[in-house]
Specification:
The protein contains 8 helices and 6 strands; from the N terminus they run E-H-E-H-H-E-H-E-H-E-H-E-H-H. By secondary structure, the protein is α/β, with parallel strands linked by helices.
């Protein structure tokens, strides 16, 4: 059984939320809204982030509304591989993150495309790193909705926890009444 989602033992991995890719993604506005929620919560709760960009020369950079929320000390890994784990600099980013912030055993994934890069990365995070993998389902997407749904089903069968963004944030918070809870509550009203 997978461990619960705790801010202190997690990091976020934002996959390929790029300028020329997102316009083709089904339900992109909801995905962007939920990505903003995740990035805002991560900042409030001091949860580190690694971001990736698939061939940014051709697909462009991370969209500005998300890029502006990436903490300065976060790694942005450029890649051409579909699984983030296969990118040469990804392993260094994970090591750097664990060295600087303490051991992390849970990865919260979000981004595009669910059936290609997100699923491939989830598989490798489990097989290569033995991470607990949480997928924020409503902050992920594919060009076709059916591919998104099929990939989430496949991720569940691998042992990934597939939940909405709100579940991720509330589980990282752990309880109501804290300053962090009060700061993040407006995101969900």
């Amino acid at each position: 059984m997978r461990k619960s989602i705790k801010a202190r033992s997690s990091f976020l991995l934002m996959i390929d939320m790029q300028e020329r890719l997102l316009p083709a993604i089904f339900n992109k506005d909801e995905i962007i809204k939920n990505s903003v929620r995740l990035l805002t919560a991560a900042k409030e709760l001091s949860v580190p982030l690694i971001a990736t960009e698939q061939y940014p020369k051709g697909i462009g950079a991370t969209i500005p509304e998300l890029k502006n929320l990436i903490p300065e000390d976060s790694d942005i890994v450029e890649k051409v591989e579909f699984s983030c784990c296969a990118a040469p600099k990804f392993g260094d980013a994970v090591l750097n993150l664990n060295f600087n912030t303490g051991t992390k055993d849970t990865v919260i994934l979000f981004g595009v495309e669910t059936h290609i890069c997100v699923l491939g990365t989830a598989i490798d995070l489990i097989e290569k790193y033995n991470f607990n993998v949480v997928i924020a389902a409503d902050a992920c997407g594919s060009r076709e909705e059916k591919n998104h749904v099929l990939a989430l089903d496949a991720a569940k069968s691998l042992g990934c926890l597939v939940v909405p963004t709100e579940t991720v944030v509330y589980h990282m918070l752990g309880k109501a009444g804290t300053p962090q809870f009060k700061a993040l509550l407006p995101l969900f009203k």
